[in-house]
Fold this protein.
Amino acid sequence: MSTKTNAEFNVLIIDDEEEIREGSRRILTRAGYPAQTAANGQEGLDILSREAMSIVLLDLKMPGIDGMDVLKLIQESYPHILVIIITGFATVETAIEAMKKGAYDFIPKPFEPDQLRLVVNRARDTISLTRETEALEQERLRNLKDLDTEKSRLHTIVDSLPNGVLVTNSQGEAVLLNQAFINHLMLPADTESGEHITAYVADEGLRDLILDISKGRHVDFEDIPTYTFDVGRERHLMARGRPVLGEKKQCLGAVVNLVDITAMKKLDELKSEFVAKVSHELRSPLSTIHEQLALALGDMVGQLPHSDEELLSRAKEKTQGLISLIGDLLDLSRIESGSTGQDIREVSLDKVLQNICDFLETKARSKNQDLQLDIGEGDYPPLEADPTALESIFGNLITNAIQYTQDGGKIRISMDISGVNLRVRVMDNGFGIEERHLDKIFEQFFREKNSKTRYITGTGLGLPIVKNLVESLGGMIQVDSAPEQGSTFTVLLPMQNGTNRV
Ligand code: ADP
């Protein structure tokens, strides 16, 4: 250790023999220690009461207060000071006694400078070690305090979130939950974490989902369903869960986010009600106008100038477009309000497809198209569904295939089983859809307009209706398409219907 660091260790030499006292001071000062001297115990104690010392060299045999008493007083008042006893050969035993009482070391007189440096340096090293340990302990305590503050800050943030938050471990025990979670699920205000989720979540479906995620059964985030459920009569909630993954991607538990969607649902209902009302009011006058235009055109065939006849025909066509739009809007609001899908029964999907194809055959033939249905094995289990929903799904898809395929084109409808689903493919070799539009075609009112489709009338509501209905049956729809090549719409419907997973 360098002399520079020795400067941090003040030494006090208490000895009545001036020669020893001064000699030691010189040796130690040369070694870099700030050293002071005292000629007796009292003087030493006075210095100690004024100045901080690290090491005291103490002679046991002095006039005035006894060295042993000085040692005792030092230990009581300054326990961090290391006391080295200076002793004559005759008093070695007393020195040992002093060490038993807590002195750090002893040095017999007379001593060589080296001996003194050695023993003081040893004391210095011991003090440095103690200081370092203390500093480390302080640091540890500070870190612990920081961690505590960080933890409580995190708790405050999580608690003030408007959404409910629940974190579970891999056994499905709640390790963290916030106030909103307690409020959303109407749990007692003093509910605390620590229990299994069965203690907090009454809805069985949600419980199963959280347990599945907690136990690592959903490694692929994309396939985790959003779960909607009701609490009480008036409250609608939506839960989203994600696994918490460790460093090695192992599942440690789940985080569940609970959103109150009551207001959203209410707004949605109001919007649907409004659309349904307006559509309903518009439908009768429009139908009357459409009928009267048709009558007028029929009655005056050949009597009107060509341009007038064309004008009336266009007006009739436009009113027909408006009537279909209103029909679609009414369908949509019926689906959204949940009144479609009420008439659940056992339906055989192959028969539904056969009926739709029979009905649309004339339309396809008017365009010289080849419409074929291939129901494969044919021996399928019936679906539990509302038949009008199935008619609407496949009626829309096959009508689109006919509409968006050129004269003389081919339309194939095939059916088979794929895993737990019945799979229906509606394929055409028609106009196709540009890739950039593929994820838009299921949005309300989206229509792809190009040179081929510009004159085809439509509302842009067919596919959103189809998607809504397919999902309400627990299924999914996807599309593959390329311009000028054709399109394939694939619908998967579970043979055992899913419930509220949307
Ligand atoms: P609509 O047919 O009334 O326009 P849809 O929602 O049924 O409304 O379809 C949206 C758009 O998707 C259509 O305007 C069309 O551009 C495209 N589309 C749908 N089906 C096909 C198909 N089989 N082939 C090519 N394009 C299609």
In short: The first strand starts at residue 11 and ends at 14. Residues 498-502 have pLDDT under 50 and may be disordered.
